[in-house]
Design a protein that fits this description.
Order of helices and strands: EEEEEEEEEEHEEEEEEEEEEEEEEEH
Family: Belongs to the pirin family.
Protein name: Pirin family protein
Low-confidence stretches: none
Radius of gyration: 18 Å
Structural class: mainly beta
Number of strands: 25
Pfam families: Pirin, Pirin_C
InterPro entries: Pirin (IPR012093), Pirin_C_dom (IPR008778), Pirin_N_dom (IPR003829), RmlC-like_jellyroll (IPR014710), RmlC_Cupin_sf (IPR011051)
């Protein structure tokens, strides 16, 4: 197993842990970026406010444990996202979006905790149309066995299939395990990694450190054991169809696409989010 310790970052005032991308591991299946938005209490008048910014060559997936976010994008989407729901945005050749704490929670104060991941688009979709969809918690399939709950956030696994329109074979599951339970993780996906959000766990008797990403060996079924009450996610899927370049908010198989995107954003030649003026400039 490969263990990746995340680096601490701060995104517009929201503290995060970011294990992907890493020098040790650039991707796990289609996942090229993994942000754990840490538990954060916002006082009245404060909140998350990620201003208008661009993307190419990827899909973003936001999944919350606490709080609510408002998603708006250049397609005209305007959606509040609550805990247990999936906010899925595919960039295609060019999209812009914002994510912020809704006005009511901004006024009252709120608590934020969740995950945001980026999945690189297959080469065939890099220059396609953008897309947004919102998936209520009730639409995500769940498997309950004694002491273990598996919720399929996106993709397939454990005989579950999420309605989220992923573009390549994907595994993204949320795991809740009670103390002393064991879950066999099959090798149905070529690449897999575990991230323990809280609790103590081990894989084949090897302890896992909470809030680190552990990349599992290919082709091996492993046993995940909860040494205490445990909350984790399992990500993975088929390997990417070639290497990807990442620069700021852009992902592409060809550096020329990134340079074109940087030039367009800097020059204001980009789709805009209706009603939004503020934007994040190129670093």
């Amino acid at each position: 197993m490969l263990t990746i310790k995340p680096r601490a970052e701060n995104v517009e005032g929201q503290p995060i842990l970011r294990p992907l991308p890493s020098a040790k591991c650039r991707s796990v299946g289609p996942f090229v970026f993994f942000d754990h938005m840490l538990e954060t209490d916002y006082a009245p008048g404060k909140g998350m406010d990620i201003r208008q910014h661009p993307h190419i060559g990827l899909s973003t997936l936001t999944y919350l444990f606490e709080g609510r976010l408002l998603h708006k994008d250049s397609l005209g989407s305007d959606q509040q996202v609550a805990p247990g729901e999936v906010s899925w945005m595919t960039s295609g050749a060019a999209i812009a979006h914002i994510e912020r704490t809704p006005a009511d929670l901004m006024a009252s104060g709120s608590r934020m905790h969740g995950l945001q991941v980026w999945l690189a688009s297959p080469k065939s979709h890099e220059r396609g149309e953008g897309h947004y969809s919102h998936h209520p918690a009730s639409s995500l399939p769940v498997a309950d066995t004694p002491g273990i709950q598996i919720r399929m956030i996106a993709g397939t696994g454990f005989c579950l299939t999420s309605p989220v329109p992923v573009l390549s074979p994907t595994l993204y599951a949320e795991l809740h395990m009670q103390t002393a339970t064991t879950l066999q993780i099959p090798d149905e996906h070529e690449e897999r990694a575990l991230y323990v959000i809280s609790g103590e766990a081990s894989v084949d008797a090897e302890p896992l450190e909470a809030r680190t990403l552990v990349v599992l060996e290919r082709g091996q079924m492993v046993n995940l054991c909860a040494e205490s009450e445990c909350h984790a996610v399992l990500i993975g899927g088929a390997p990417l169809d070639g290497p990807r370049r990442m620069n700021w908010n852009f992902v592409a198989s060809d550096t020329a696409l990134i340079e074109q995107a940087r030039t367009r954003w800097a020059g204001g030649d980009w789709p805009t989010v209706p009603g939004e003026i503020g934007r994040i400039e190129l670093p």
